[in-house]
């Protein structure tokens, strides 16, 4: 690993009696000697403290549709300026963004931009929000928080795309500046988290309960269904029942298709029927907004009124069609509120993906 000459100080750490320093940003609690890096690779012990090696540097910037995060109930149709860094604090064998999240080279971070510059570019590009994504923003928390604060000054919202694997103190500071989040609920067994991700389930559940009970952050859940690993009817039933009981029926759930990647290339892709079954189980257990993703399914990707069944937001991949919401976010047919953050009219960004530079 080649270290950037400018490392940013952090505050989520403490010194141990044996001379090592413990990073406290996530439940891994990496205990590091001088010069060592955490599993995430970007948080490093330097000068007897933990510093962030990726501050101000990114793997690239791109304007995406907000639906790609995926967020279906947060400013539909609007563009979001998205960026990530490198590294991750989990070790998922099925990672779908492994080229960035598993990178061990700081040279991956070829693009650079200050938080103020990101906010400025987002405004100039007409983006309604900035997303911290591609790899988990928990590990570049200081950079994400500073960027969110700069965006807030310009009326631009912030979106975290995260696995929710974060410790309580850091969690409070991180989500205090976020407006929306998509949390990756990878499975509903600790065996899955431990065996395939190198982590544990409970800290993620704690984050979800915290978001629901202690914040005003709009959040949605995503589960990548991997054949034979987290797609059983029993597990999906338990997961969706827990969501309704602890988070309520209005938290949208996205069930997305796995494709063979990283260290699980021997596992077949997710059959569309599995996604449809998961959606049916969720809705049968009281989830009002359940979606399928990574496949072409207008029925399963659209938003329907849970009261009268009217089509509220039609989606064909990331393109919006019929709009059945009144200006106040209620069903235009029956007047039932649709949970989410909506404006009188949807955005018109569509499915475009626009790579952007920070210098222009």
- List the helices and strands in order: EEEEEEEEEHEHEHEHEHHEHEHEHEEEE
Parts with pLDDT < 50 across at least 5 consecutive residues: 1-5
Adjacency order of strands in the biggest sheet: 16-15-14-13-12-11-9-8-20
Largest sheet data? 9 strands, mixed
Question: What is the correct CATH architecture of the largest domain?
Answer: Alpha-Beta Barrel
**Structural class, from secondary structure content?**
alpha/beta
Q: How far apart, in Å, are the first and last alpha carbons? A: 30 Å
Summed over residues and divided by their number, the pLDDT gives a mean of 94
Total of domains: 2
CA radius of gyration: 20 Å
How much helical structure, as a percent, in the residues?
A: 10-25%
What is the CATH homologous superfamily assignment of the largest domain? Aldolase class I
In short:
With 360 residues, this protein is of the alpha/beta class. 24% of the residues lie in helices and 23% in strands.
Secondary-structure topology with pairs:
Elements: E1 8-9, E2 13-15, E3 21-23, E4 31-32, E5 43-46, E6 49-52, E7 57-58, E8 60-65, E9 79-84, H1 98-101, E10 111-112, H2 115-124, E11 129-132, H3 141-153, E12 157-162, H4 168-175, E13 180-184, H5 190-197, H6 202-214, E14 218-225, H7 233-246, E15 253-257, H8 272-284, E16 290-293, H9 298-301, E17 303-304, E18 311-316, E19 319-323, E20 354-356
Parallel strand pairs: 9-11, 11-12, 12-13, 13-14, 14-15, 15-16
Antiparallel strand pairs: 1-6, 2-3, 3-4, 5-6, 7-10, 8-9, 8-20, 17-18, 18-19
């Amino acid at each position: 690993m080649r270290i950037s000459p400018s490392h940013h100080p952090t505050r989520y750490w403490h010194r141990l009696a044996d001379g090592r320093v413990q990073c406290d940003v996530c439940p891994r609690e990496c205990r590091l000697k001088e010069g060592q890096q955490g599993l995430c690779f970007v948080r490093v012990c330097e000068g007897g403290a933990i510093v962030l090696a990726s501050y101000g540097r990114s793997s690239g910037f791109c304007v995406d549709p907000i639906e790609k995060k995926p967020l279906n109930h947060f400013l539909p149709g609007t563009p979001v300026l998205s960026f990530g860094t490198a590294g991750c604090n989990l070790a998922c064998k099925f990672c779908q963004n492994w080229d960035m999240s598993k990178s061990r080279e700081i040279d991956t971070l070829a693009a650079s931009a200050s938080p103020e510059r990101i906010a400025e570019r987002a405004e100039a590009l007409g983006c309604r929000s900035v997303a911290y994504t591609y790899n988990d923003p928990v590990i570049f928390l200081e950079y994400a928080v500073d960027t969110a604060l700069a965006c807030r000054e310009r009326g631009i919202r912030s979106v975290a795309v995260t696995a929710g694997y974060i410790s309580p103190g850091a969690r409070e500071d991180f989500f205090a500046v976020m407006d929306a989040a998509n949390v990756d609920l990878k499975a509903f067994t600790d065996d899955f988290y431990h065996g395939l991700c190198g982590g544990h389930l409970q800290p993620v559940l704690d984050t979800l309960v915290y978001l629901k009970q202690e914040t005003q952050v709009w959040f949605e859940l995503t589960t990548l269904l991997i054949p034979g690993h987290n797609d059983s009817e029993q597990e999906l039933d338990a997961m969706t029942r827990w969501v309704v009981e602890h988070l309520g029926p209005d938290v949208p759930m996205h069930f997305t298709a796995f494709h063979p990647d990283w260290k699980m290339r021997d596992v077949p892709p997710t059959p569309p029927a599995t996604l449809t079954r998961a959606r049916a189980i969720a809705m049968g257990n009281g989830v009002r907004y359940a979606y399928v993703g990574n496949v072409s399914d207008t029925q399963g990707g659209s938003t329907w009124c849970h009261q009268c069944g009217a089509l509220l937001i039609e989606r064909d991949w990331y393109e919006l069609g019929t709009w059945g919401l009144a200006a106040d976010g209620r069903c235009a047919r029956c007047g039932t509120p649709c949970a989410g953050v909506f404006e009188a009219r949807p955005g018109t960004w569509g499915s475009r993906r626009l790579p952007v530079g920070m210098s222009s």
